[in-house]
Amino acid sequence: MKKLFVHGVGKIYRFLTPIIFLSDSEPAHDFVLAMSQFLGSIPGVPKLLRVLLRISDPSLETTVDGIHFENPIGLAAGFDHEASMPRIVGSIGFGFQSIGTVTNGAYEGNPYPRIKRLVKSRTMLVYKGFKSSGMNFVLAKIKGQKWTVPIGISIGRTNPLSEYTHEAAIADIVEGFTKAIDSHMPFSYFELNISCPNMLHEISFYEPEHLSTLLFAIQQLALPKPLFIKMPISLSDDEILAILDTVMQFQVAAVIFGNLQVDRTNPAFDKAELATLAKYPGNWSGMPCQEQSDHLVKLAYTHTKGRLAVVGCGGVFTAQDAYRKIRNGASLIQLVTATVFEGPQVAAEICADLPALLARDGLKSVAEAVGVDVKWESLRGNVKNSEKL
Ligand SMILES: Cc1cc2nc3c(=O)[nH]c(=O)nc-3n(C[C@H](O)[C@H](O)[C@H](O)COP(=O)(O)O)c2cc1C
């Protein structure tokens, strides 16, 4: 009954998208965040939404590095950059959420336009560049809140820095982490974002030497909760493997594959539609991320052999998309763009359909499905996520 209801809500949303998409993306996004903040603050509303929309099923429960997830479908960083949704995100069906990316200092964001939809290509052009009111503001905003699902905080470097050096960027990121730790907010994990492709002054942490220095500095903070890293997707396999080898030298729980697609020649684009945005800078979410994200999930799962959990993020719109990533090695899933094209109930729809896909293939749980399509048998099934390093 509930499954029919969430799919019904989805059908109505999709029917209305031609009207919804008449609005500009960024004001529409801001409106949704303001509504979420408002609804989350009214006593009883999160509970009511939970009764209507949240799908629970034992096969969806999973544990990664000691964190228990009632379902594996998370809201990725970027949708809720100023933490307006943690009180309501579980009620609309998500199993977890990364708030942010929050930066230590404030930044009003890159010049407009910063978000644009391409409906045929099922993608959004993103050029926000870590718009953030800063760590102090965000922590004050969520102070005292209680959450029903694991909430992580994505932290990146402040976009305008007084000097553009690796040392200054590391000091800034460390200050952001320190404030988040000292706030004693009940974050379930910390997410380090090293992969925003929209920065005005790029300071890359993709070279092993710089990444090691950054991870060493973060390790000195003795994080009270696991560290996830948000990875780039627009690099060669060799570059990704070098990053993974560096990451495995530190206490990192999970890698997320990944961030936005840089490549405008990706075959997922409708070329005529893409041409309408040719003059705008930015990078791409949704469908143009899908194939590369699927590939990198598999690559990371195979290469790290269970030492890191892998989170699949990029072009997940349906339960089939999520299931494919899980079978490729993803222990968890994150998404943003599907909330725009499929509706805010999309996590509930995925959770409604995922158990049947598992059952069809004789799999009892998401955890059992992780990596079944990867031709690497030696460790799969022998290591529980919670037993990893
Ligand atoms: C509007 C928007 C803003 C984003 N901002 C961030 C961000 O601040 N930090 C981050 O790690 N990823 C950010 N992302 C990337 C998403 O988290 C995700 O990696 C990417 O969109 C691929 O997932 P999707 O296809 O489900 O959207 C943003 C994406 C969008 C669409």
Summarize the structure in words.
With 389 residues, the chain is an alpha/beta fold. It has a single domain (2-374), classed as Aldolase class I (TIM Barrel, Alpha-Beta Barrel), CATH 3.20.20.70. The chain has helices at 2-20, 25-41, 45-53, 135-142, 166-182, 208-219, 237-247, 271-275, 287-304, 319-328, 337-341, 346-360, 366-369; strands at 62-64, 67-69, 73-75, 96-103, 115-118, 123-126, 151-156, 189-193, 227-231, 254-257, 283-284, 309-313, 330-335. The strands form three sheets. The chain has an eight-stranded parallel beta barrel, surrounded by four helices. The longest helix is centred in the N-terminal third of the chain and has 19 residues, at 2-20. 50% of the residues are buried. It binds flavin mononucleotide. Flavin mononucleotide (FMN) binds next to strand 6 and helix 11.
What tags apply to this protein structure?
389 residues, alpha/beta, globular, binds flavin mononucleotide, 39% helix
* Name of the CATH homologous superfamily: Aldolase class I
- Total discrete domains: 1
Distance between the termini: 41 Å
The CATH topology annotation reads as: TIM Barrel
How many beta-strand runs?
Answer: 13
Mean pLDDT: 94
Strand content: 5-15%
**Unreliable parts:** 377-389
Protein structure class: alpha/beta
Architecture per CATH nomenclature, i.e. the level-2 architecture: Alpha-Beta Barrel
User: Helix segment count?
Assistant: 13
CATH C-level = Alpha Beta
